[in-house]
Amino acid sequence: MTKKTEVKKVAIVAPMKIEMINIFKTTYGYWRHWVKYILKDGGVLKFRFVKDAESYNGKIAIAKPEVEKAKKVLADYKTKNPDTVEMWR
To answer: Each residue of 19-77: pLDDT tens digit?
Structure first.
């Protein structure tokens, strides 16, 4: 008796690289406690914090298709909360 085994070929699909654009500077503390939640509540899906090499400051990076949406969300937050500390520049 012989046993046939089928070898299935699996195509490996490389994930698409998303182009991220730095839009504002902020500190890690503001990012960790407030900014990422403001973006998430505003409906921005792809974002991250890019840390500077020499300090805990960094930049807010947004996926290229969502840059305008993120800027609008952050501007709306500033207009609705004028008395808060400036968390991004």
So the answer is: 999 999 999 999 999 999 999 999 999 999 999 999 989 999 999 999 999 999 999 99
What value, to the nearest 5°, has the Cα angle with vertex 50 and ends 53 and 52?
A: 20
CA distances from 64 to 4, 6, 33, 71 (A): 50, 43, 24, 12
In terms of Cα–Cα distance, which of 50, 40, 41, 51 is closest to 20?
50
Opening angle at CA 62, ends 56 and 64, nearest 5 = 145
Q: Given a cut of 70, is residue 5 above it in pLDDT?
A: no
Handedness of CA 76, 36, 40, 22 (dihedral sign): positive
Distances (CA, A) of 84 to 1, 24, 88: 78, 17, 11
What phi and psi values does residue 57 have, to the nearest 5 degrees? -80, 165
